Amino acid sequence: MLNKRQHNHKKIKIKYIGHSSYEKQSHRKDSVLGFLRVNFLFTSIIFICYSVGLYINQPELEFLSPIGGASVFGGNIEVQAQEVEVDKCDLIENDVEKYICEVFEDDYEDAMKILSCENKGLSPLAINDANSNGSTDVGIFQINSIHGFTVEEMQDYRANINFAHKLFKRDSWSAWACSHKLNIKSFWE
């Protein structure tokens, strides 16, 4: 059973096994022809797997050689293809965005839409002190000071994201003005 954060990202591993040049030194002429045949076959298989994969969730291909950097001369070739489920959060390199993905899970895309309006740069130091009621919005999710946190506490991106998730679970996206601007529906609507 898939973790609910895992989506249809596929990774295909292709491994070839053959004889290296030092194993077939005595048959130089046959080795060159074998090398060309094997490499043509391997390249064709890779091309076919990749082409088919483009139509199936755009997989990432990983090529494994039995001997690092060694070329294959003659011999048999074995191709092993294996699909591996990849957590979408593992594909994100930015630490802040990755943490948002891990915390919000299936609601990650909506969270990023909210942030495209609230805090486009994902700055944990962002402060908005222009609220008409005198309150201040702080950090990644622009958490309002009416919740009793200090500026320093809400500038810790993990604490900010965790509290934003708690607010989201309680009130959906209605706590963020941008949800209305972007027409992001609450989960009860």
Explain this structure to me?
The protein is an alpha+beta fold. It folds into 2 domains: 80 residues, no CATH class; 91 residues, Lysozyme. The protein has 6 helices and 6 strands, in the order βαββααβββααα. The strands form 2 sheets. The protein has a 3-stranded mixed sheet, covered by helices on one side. α1 links the parallel β1 and β2. The longest helix is centred in the first third of the chain and has 27 residues.
List keywords for this structure.
6 helices; three-stranded mixed β-sheet; about 190 residues; elongated; alpha+beta; single chain; about 40% helix; 2 domains
Please outline what is shown here.
With 189 residues, the protein is of the alpha+beta class.
